[in-house]
Structure formats: structure tokens, C-alpha cells
Design brief:
This protein has 341 residues and is of the alpha/beta class. Helix content is 55%, strand content 12%.
């Protein structure tokens, strides 16, 4: 079973975890001890905001979710540590990797289930049957701090596709993502470095995938804003005015970055691509957006479509144009859902 593509020295991992894990433990102790007071205070804040601003109760929801998140994280870390012990201090790689994958799905399903329950979220998806059989390359848009849950919940946990993730390196500050994520075949990328080695590592992650496997990419690289869309188009125009003109109609998605996908297609040329596009998380980029009540009662629409590998062009320029057209079509679908709401 393939291990993580990240070859970080053990000493660096230990040093980072000694910084990131204790605050989570302390946070759980403090929040649990103060929970009655926090709940009463949150209720008073919510009543005041409901009367003066007509806002839904958010403080209560956020306090409860914070406690659930900390409990889930610490429970998962204890389970992952116990698994490391049972697997002979990590010597039984197959056992440790397989069980860590199952723990990862349980962790994400618990968190997403909490979000759905607390905020009245509803997810409606279509076409998920196209995810199997693997291997597949899954391309997903990035609109919110919440949509990170969707691939693990809908693709990995439900459809049992063993996703390999390309994740921004900053998320190593999240202890569970750090511990479980580095046991599994993922790559924590250093964004915007422009280094060829990053693209090579992403491409290498795609090698050796079987019928149960998939690789997840966020082609936009970051969450959408109108300002980021405009800056991205301006940067593209400096290098390739023709491509910038082609992407100018894009409205709700960021222009896709091509380096990672081209590297993956180079390593896995006979792998189909699945486009995972969602709508409903738009406008939820920051915690302040959620605090304003925008998440409550939302319906999240998700669409999966599969492109067979023999329909993907072979040359680089044609692949870039193909990806742009795919992304423009996805943008039109998002626009149709927003306009119909």
C-alpha cells in the first residue's frame, strides 16, 4: 500500500506536533469546564442579536460545534495513537494505513454530520455512481471553508473510493490531518512556490492507483472571491492573452491552475477524470460569514460527471484548453443553480 508522498523528517513532525496537539487538549479541557457558562452566554448573545438584528441563533451553534470538534479531534488522536501501538509502533504498515483510512472517514463524517444537524444543512447530489470503478482523478471547486468535508463524505466514506489528497501544507497545523494525513498517500503541497519539484511530487502521487483509488485536486488552489478571480485573469493575461480571453466569461469559479493536473495526467494517462462541482457554499469564505447566519438552512447541490481518458487530449496545449472548457461549463452550471434559487 502506497505511503504518503511527503518525506518530511521525523524530527520536524514531532516538533510540530508538540506545538499543535497540546493547545487542542488544553482547549478541550477549558471549553468542557466552562461549557455551562459558555452556553448561557451564547444564548443571551443570540437572543440579543435575534431581537436587534433578526439574526438566527449562531453563538449557541458555534459553541456546541467547537466542543464537538475538540472532542472528535482528541478522540481521533487517541485512537490513532492506540493504532500505532497495536501495529507494533507503526511497523505493521498495512494495518496502520488501512485502519487510519477508516478513522479518517469516521472523523470527517462525524464533523459533517454535526454541521448538518446544527445548521440545518441539506446536501443533494447527483451522478455519484460515475465515481466507480477507479482509478479516477477528482477535480473539485473550492468556495468555502466548509466544502473541504464533501470529498471525504461523499466520495471516500460513502462510495469507498480511497482518495489521495493534494492538500495545502498550512493544514498540517490541524493535528488529525497531520497524523492521519501523513500516514496515508497524500501530498501536502507548498502553494505558489512555482517549483517543479512540487508538480513532480503531485504527479508521483497518481502512480500505482488501482480500481479502488482516486486522487483529489482543487484546480483553483484557493477559495473563490471576485477579487481573486480578477487577479488570476490578469496574471494569465500577462503570459497567455488568448487563454485569458477564453476564461473571461468565468463568473463563480477561479481560473484553474494547470500544473498539478498536467503532472497527474502525465503519470496516469489512462485514468478517467471526475468533475465534482457544488453550489450552495458560495459566500461562506470566512468564519464571519457563518457568524452572520448565512450557513443556516442551506441546500448544497453537488454534481458528478465523468470524462473517459480517451476523451482527454494528449498534448499540453490541448489539455489546458480542455480543462478551461470543462471549468467554464462547471461555472455555467453553478450560475444556473444560483439564478434558480
Amino acid at each position: 500500500m502506497k505511503e504518503s508522498a511527503d518525506r518530511e523528517p521525523r524530527g520536524s513532525k514531532v516538533a510540530r506536533r508538540l506545538k499543535t496537539i497540546p493547545p487542542y487538549i488544553l482547549g478541550l479541557i477549558v471549553v468542557t469546564a466552562l461549557l455551562p457558562l459558555l452556553l448561557i452566554s451564547a444564548l443571551l448573545v443570540d437572543i440579543f442579536r435575534a431581537i436587534t438584528q433578526r439574526k438566527p441563533f449562531m453563538a449557541l451553534r458555534l459553541v456546541v460545534f467547537l466542543w464537538i470538534y475538540l472532542v472528535t479531534d482528541i478522540a481521533a488522536l487517541i485512537a490513532l495513537f492506540a493504532l500505532w501501538l497495536v501495529s507494533g509502533f507503526g511497523l505493521n504498515k498495512e494495518m496502520m494505513v488501512g485502519a487510519s483510512w477508516h478513522f479518517q472517514q469516521l472523523w470527517v463524517r462525524s464533523l459533517l454530520g454535526s454541521v448538518k444537524l446544527l445548521f440545518g444543512l441539506r446536501i443533494v447530489d447527483e451522478g455519484a455512481e460515475c465515481l466507480r470503478p477507479g482509478p479516477v482523478i477528482v477535480l473539485i471547486r473550492h468556495a468555502s471553508i466548509v466544502d473541504n468535508f464533501l470529498p471525504s463524505a461523499l466520495v471516500a466514506a460513502r462510495e469507498r473510493v480511497r482518495l489521495r489528497y493534494v492538500i495545502k501544507r498550512e493544514l498540517l497545523s490541524e493535528p488529525c490531518l497531520d497524523v492521519a494525513g501523513q500516514r496515508l498517500p497524500n501530498y501536502f503541497v507548498r502553494r505558489d512556490t512555482g517549483e517543479e519539484v512540487e508538480r513532480e511530487n503531485i504527479g508521483r502521487l497518481a502512480s500505482g492507483m488501482g480500481s479502488e483509488d482516486g486522487l483529489l485536486l482543487y484546480p483553483e488552489g484557493t477559495r473563490f472571491t471576485a477579487e481573486r478571480r480578477q487577479r488570476a485573469l490578469e496574471k494569465i493575461a500577462e503570459r497567455d492573452p488568448e487563454r485569458a480571453a477564453r476564461l473571461e466569461p468565468i463568473e463563480y469559479l477561479l481560473p484553474p491552475k494547470v500544473g498539478g493536473l498536467l503532472a497527474v495526467l502525465g503519470q496516469a494517462p489512462e485514468t478517467d477524470v471526475v468533475l465534482m462541482i457544488h453550489q450552495g457554499f458560495d459566500g461562506l469564505r470566512l468564519i464571519s460569514d457563518i457568524w452572520g447566519g448565512a450557513l443556516v438552512g442551506r441546500v448544497i447541490n453537488v454534481r458528478f460527471t465523468r470524462v473517459p481518458h480517451d476523451q482527454i487530449p494528449a498534448s499540453r496545449d490541448e489539455q489546458v484548453e480542455w480543462l478551461d472548457e470543462l471549468w467554464l461549463e462547471a461555472d455555467r452550471w453553478v450560475a444556473s443553480k444560483i439564478n434558480a434559487a
